[in-house]
Design brief:
Number of helices: 10
Helix content: over 70%
Order of helices and strands: HHHHHHHHHH
CATH superfamily of the largest domain: RNA polymerase sigma factor, region 2, helix turn helix motif
Structural class: mainly alpha
CATH topology of the largest domain: Rna Polymerase Sigma Factor, Chain: A
Shape: globular
């Protein structure tokens, strides 16, 4: 049995034993999944500070609503679902703030950001253009692309996280790739 599977089984057993809100459960869950959830949030938001907030909120919600999780299913996917929804809320708030900031002509301070390992690798091969193209996609296309291509999640996992049918995920990925191909045509050539 792989290391991660042992932790998941331990967490599921703790929930079944009524320890889902215990300090030990919280420590084990955070130590096992924090890095993954943080990288996921950074990939969606592009800002480690916002990703920190999303991580905290994700784990707080997970502990608060642990009774909604079914032991024996996929805890990582359940946490991912929470993190994606929290990230999407932050992204929407940013858009609204950006709109009003433009309207009242205020300047926004740009926070320095640390690239994810995926971004660091891509920097050598035109990552700025690739990420600009990905970030230019609408939310409904951008999130599935990140989950599928950056985090190697399966279509059924993405469908579960986004609460949409698998066919819709496949369709959104197909359309996103077409849009990315058009935007990146010069880079590929």
């Amino acid at each position: 049995m792989a290391h991660g599977e042992g932790i998941v089984s331990e967490l599921d057993k703790m929930i079944q034993d009524g320890q889902g809100k215990s300090h030990r459960f919280a420590e084990t869950m955070v130590s096992q999944y924090y890095n993954f959830i943080h990288r996921l949030a950074v990939s969606i938001l592009g800002d480690p500070t916002d990703a920190d907030d999303v991580c905290q909120e994700t784990f707080i919600d997970a502990l608060f609503y642990i009774d909604r999780y079914s032991p024996g299913t996929n805890l990582k996917a359940w946490l991912s679902k929470i993190a994606v929804h929290k990230s999407m809320q932050v992204h929407r708030k940013r858009k609204i703030r950006g709109f009003y900031a433009t309207v009242i002509r205020t300047s926004q301070v740009s926070l320095p950001r640390t690239p994810t390992p995926f971004e660091a690798v891509l920097e050598k091969e035109g990552s700025e253009q690739i990420w600009a193209a990905i970030n230019a996609l609408g939310e409904k296309h951008r999130i599935p692309v990140i989950l599928y291509y950056v985090y190697d999640l399966k279509i059924r996992e993405i469908a579960d996280i986004l609460e949409i049918p698998e066919g819709t995920v496949s369709s959104r990925l197909h359309h996103a790739i077409q849009k990315l191909e058009n935007k990146l045509k010069g880079l590929v050539d």
